[in-house]
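Reminder to self: tokens first, then the designed residues, so the page reads top to bottom the way the pipeline ran.
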């Protein structure tokens, strides 16, 4: 018997789960959390804290920051100083706060569409402009148009770039050379590089994500990285993340922003659960990655064999699969609605990510194999009848 259970689907129907707030018979493969119980060590640490029964104010101390540092050393082979870190209540709250602190109303915030849809909210809701250097799709995968990116970084109103590293929804893992090149360009044009690394731990075997704070030279002074156990360990509702800012001045600015936005204080479980994840969660995470590898292989083969009009375009990161549906429609929103009504399968339409997303759908594969198989059968049935 396997040591960890990746076969049982926790029943989240009629709980407060966002994803599972669906009708009977519907199958949600959408919002980015997982249908696996988190690592036993995390549950144990949470239970211990609950047993204590007194939940007064807290702030993170050395044990928290050392756990983050050691995780990055052991898991990612990267040196990181505890002085560079600030606790925050989530990656998205930090992004919005940093947009407000580091850029000004009317500035351009650069992104690479198609990209995580909430980046648009953080930018637009704060009165900044979205400027995208769209990733270029060649029919197989995506790449950066460096000339276009440089031209947009050079515009005087571009002051901040939000980088998705690794990239949601395409699953791309950026190489060391790419991350360094991007950081050097940001330095050249005085643009702060805000790197969202929430998917950094979820990279399949043989690939490595490169934290932006690990770049060499003066470019590091322009970097803010956001890291979190949220995706890796299925603890999104923990609301815990760490901001990493090597440069002291920039760090002080970010810290003032996080504090005035009141998003720098942990809830009762944030500290023990994060420490448990980073100190004792490695074996579970590696078993999870193996499970995800199996899920991706199954889905890729299934689609090739049974729905050959679709094309999987995903890179080796995240548990989200990015599928080109342009052979059957150039409006994936209509397809997604049809799949939902016809088969109960709920997937995400690519348009919300901008760029060429209208020709794509995104499916969350972080579920036991029984659910993946159910989802694929519904997908095949829905696509076949949509084509008719
Ligand atoms: C790239 C990216 N950043 C941030 C988040 C959410 O972060 P948090 O829940 O810590 O606010 C997600 C969730 O899907 C994501 O994909």
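Designed residues (388 positions):
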């Amino acid at each position: 018997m396997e040591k960890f259970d990746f076969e049982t689907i926790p029943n989240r129907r009629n709980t407060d789960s966002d994803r599972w707030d669906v009708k009977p018979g519907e199958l949600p493969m959408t919002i980015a959390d997982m249908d696996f119980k988190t690592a036993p060590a995390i549950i144990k640490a949470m239970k211990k804290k609950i047993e204590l029964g007194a939940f007064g104010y807290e702030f993170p101390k050395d044990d928290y920051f050392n756990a983050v540092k050691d995780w990055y050393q052991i898991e990612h082979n990267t040196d990181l100083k505890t002085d560079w870190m600030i606790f925050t209540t989530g990656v998205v709250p930090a992004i919005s706060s940093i947009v407000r602190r580091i850029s000004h109303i009317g500035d351009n915030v650069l992104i690479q569409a198609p990209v995580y849809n909430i980046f648009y909210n953080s930018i637009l809701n704060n009165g900044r402009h979205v400027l995208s250097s769209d990733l270029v799709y060649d029919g197989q995968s995506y790449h950066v148009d460096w000339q276009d990116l440089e031209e947009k970084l050079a515009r005087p109103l571009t002051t901040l770039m939000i980088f998705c590293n690794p990239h949601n929804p395409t699953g791309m893992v950026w190489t060391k050379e790419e991350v360094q090149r991007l950081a050097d360009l940001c330095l050249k044009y005085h643009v702060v590089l805000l790197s969202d690394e929430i998917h950094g731990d979820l990279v399949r075997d043989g690939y490595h994500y490169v934290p932006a704070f690990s770049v060499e030279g003066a470019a590091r002074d322009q970097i803010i990285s956001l890291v979190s156990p949220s995706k890796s360990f299925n603890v999104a509702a923990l609301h815990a993340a760490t901001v990493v800012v090597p440069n002291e001045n920039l760090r002080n600015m970010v810290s003032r922003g996080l504090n005035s936005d009141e998003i720098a204080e942990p809830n009762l479980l944030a500290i023990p659960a994060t420490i448990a994840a980073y100190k004792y969660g490695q074996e579970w995470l590696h078993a999870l990655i193996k499970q995800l590898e199996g899920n991706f292989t199954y889905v890729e083969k299934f689609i090739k064999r049974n729905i050959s009009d679709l094309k999987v375009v995903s890179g080796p990161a995240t548990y989200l699969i990015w599928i080109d549906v342009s052979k059957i429609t150039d409006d994936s929103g209509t397809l997604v609605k049809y799949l939902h009504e016809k088969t109960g399968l709920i997937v995400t339409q690519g348009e919300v990510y901008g760029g060429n997303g209208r020709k794509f759908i995104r499916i969350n594969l972080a579920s036991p194999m029984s659910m993946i198989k159910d989802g694929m059968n519904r997908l095949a049935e829905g696509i076949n009848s949509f084509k008719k």
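The first helix runs from residue 40 to 52.
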